Amino acid sequence: MTDSIAVEARHVVKAFGQGETAVRALDDVSVNIRTGEFFTLLGPSGCGKTTLLRLIAGFEMPSGGTILLEGADITTLPPNKRPVNTVFQSYALFPHLTVAQNVGFGLQMLGRPKAEVAATTARMLALVKLEALANRKTSQLSGGQQQRVALARALAPAPKVLLLDEPLSALDLKLRKEMQIELKRLQLETGITFIFVTHDQEEALTMSDRIGVMSAGKLQQVGTPKEIYNNPVNRFVASFIGESNFLPATREGDRYRLDCGATLAAPAAKSARVTLTVRPEQVRLAPVGEADAIPATITNLVYFGTDTHCHLSLSDGTEVVARLQSPATGDAGWGLGQAVALRFVPEAIQVLED
Amino acid sequence: MSPAEQAEITRSARNGWLLSAPALVVLTLAAIGPLAIVVAYSFMPAGEYGNVAWGFSLEAWQGILFTKDIFDGSLAWADANLTIFWRSVKLSVLTTVFAFIVGFPTAWFIATRPPKARAMWLFLITIPFWTNLLIRTFAITEIIRKEGLLNTILLKLHIISQPFEMIYTDMAVFIGMTYVYLPLMVLPLFASLDRFDMRLLEAAYDLYANPWQVLRRVIMPIVKPGIIAGSILVFVPSLGAYVTPRLLGGGKNMMIGNFIELQFGQGRNWPLGASLSVMLLIIVTGALLVYVRYANRETRNGH
């Protein structure tokens, strides 16, 4: 992976509708996507991630801002003039063409010689392991196979950037897991920059080099999966990626006082009033009476096999969830209604100033 | 299965036949019966005062292409007939092609409207069917005749200095038939385009197709059934058109339909009229078979 920039969005705005009723699908989004990286746009539906993808593909024109591809302004270029290809959520395979003809379509439109089209098509079909189905009609394929054809078709013209619009959402869980690994393999083999849109945070964490978390038309945070998970910049990112406990607190010197009265140490913050976040797996339970621990009561225990989710209530009513690894004996020894002492791994506490 | 059940099934099957019996009777009497009579007449000699004489004769079939010299009985090509056949085929093909050129954008426009507006546009397309064909054709006459609306406007605007002769030409027949049969092209095209997945357009654009390639390589192959259906619906009635060429072509520019009518009327040659009718039927059926088979083979091969 080099540090050159494949796609750059500068202050991109996209509004749908006019005047009072206009909806800002994208509100001043700026992002750099590096050459050769697997970049994921992650967010709930309606956050603008698909709109950003469609702007990069050229299906929509931005209301403001510019989009650059390898440094060149492509903002007003039509889709057929952009060296960028898309894998559509609906696959959008051509029903009147065979699998091979679908894969070769892009090269054919580019006017490449017949021999080259045939050779590249064969190579792409081999890449997605569909050689045997080359002459089938696409309607005769299963969902997973159609997905592979769509991938091969988009990769065949060797685009500078491959855009993937929730391509796995129509597949069942097992197939989705397979395709996740498959996609990652294809990205590494081809070295093409992938921009992947999903609302599935697990998908984003497992596949991406970097993730851009979006909400309400704004890019909330861009970072590696670890950065996003461990150092969320705001409450939205912390709650959308994985689960989190949110504890309102007041700064007292270099310590923080929770609303329930307990104090604890955490990284420094500027504001006086903050929210501390802790991942459930970073919460420890201890018997009552341990020093520097927060008193709590167990309100619910949910068994998940590998671990148990322990719902706790602090003295001021704040809810905290702890994810406890199930011990070999099967019973962690905690009971409903039991008073316990909470302890957070200090490095795991994030301070959100909001 | 018990005998009672079996009897029940037999009875309901027979009832099914009974229900379709009226339709079968009507079809037999109204379609197959007259057709059989026409075929029979074409193999009979002409009677003195119209009608047919009893007997067997191939003269009517010969009369399609040849005329017999009344003095020495030698055969010569019937040039007048050939002119009429050629004009019919030419005008029908032109009408079909032009109806497609005009009808395709129209159908596309309707198919891309929001669902509510679509119903309104379709309704507007079918409005001409509410008026009698004869009246509509007379209306066209009013527009294109020498002192008609079109010439008057063009003269008033000083675009032309002399009224141009349009009525009673092949051009007038062509315009009239295109107008009359256009909805028959638009409706099947719309039905096809309505089912067309518009997301394929984005896929094609994304894969470097220019707008013309999108039309030729994606839209047209997929809506081909609609194109075939529309072409058949326009071509077949065009070839046998009677009212339009009669009113807009005058007496001179006859098409097959008028020529057949002539044989049963003033011509008093019923067998020739019958043989011409059967020939028209054979040509249309043959053309359709070739077209459909050709179109199917193309689809099977991909593009």
Explain what this protein looks like in three dimensions.
The complex is a heterodimer of chains A (354) and B (303). Chain A is an alpha+beta fold and 354 residues long. In chain A, 24% of the residues lie in helices and 35% in strands. Chain A has a six-stranded mixed beta sheet, with helices on both faces. Chain A has a five-stranded antiparallel beta sheet with strand order 13-12-11-14-20. Chain A folds into two domains: 5-236, Rossmann fold (3-Layer(aba) Sandwich), CATH 3.40.50; 246-352, Nucleic acid-binding proteins (OB fold (Dihydrolipoamide Acetyltransferase, E2P), Beta Barrel). The radius of gyration of chain A is 25 Å and the shape is elongated. By secondary structure, chain B is an all-alpha fold. Chain B has a single domain, classed as MetI-like fold. In chain B, strands 1-2 form a two-stranded antiparallel sheet. In chain B, strand 1 and strand 2 form a beta hairpin. In chain B, helix 1 crosses helix 13 (270-300) and helix 8 crosses helix 9 (211-222). The longest helix of chain B has 40 residues, at 3-42. The radius of gyration of chain B is 25 Å and the shape is globular. The mean pLDDT of chain B is 88.
Give me a quick take on this structure.
The complex is a heterodimer of chains A (354) and B (303). By secondary structure, chain A is of the alpha+beta class. Helices cover 24% and strands 35% of the residues of chain A.
Topology (elements, then pairings):
The complex is a heterodimer of chains A (354) and B (303).
Chain A: E1 5-16, E2 23-34, E3 38-42, H1 49-57, E4 64-69, E5 72-73, E6 84-87, H2 99-109, H3 114-127, H4 143-155, E7 161-165, H5 173-190, E8 193-198, H6 201-207, E9 210-215, E10 218-223, H7 225-230, H8 235-240, E11 245-252, E12 255-258, E13 263-265, E14 273-278, E15 283-286, E16 294-303, E17 307-314, E18 319-325, E19 339-344, E20 350-352
Parallel strand pairs in A: 3-8, 3-9, 6-7, 7-8
Antiparallel strand pairs in A: 1-2, 1-4, 4-5, 9-10, 11-12, 11-14, 12-13, 14-20, 15-19, 16-17, 16-19, 17-18
Helix pairs in contact in A: 2-3, 2-4, 3-4
Chain B: H1 3-42, H2 59-65, E1 66-68, E2 75-77, H3 79-111, H4 115-126, H5 133-144, H6 149-156, H7 170-194, H8 199-206, H9 211-222, H10 224-239, H11 243-248, H12 256-264, H13 270-300
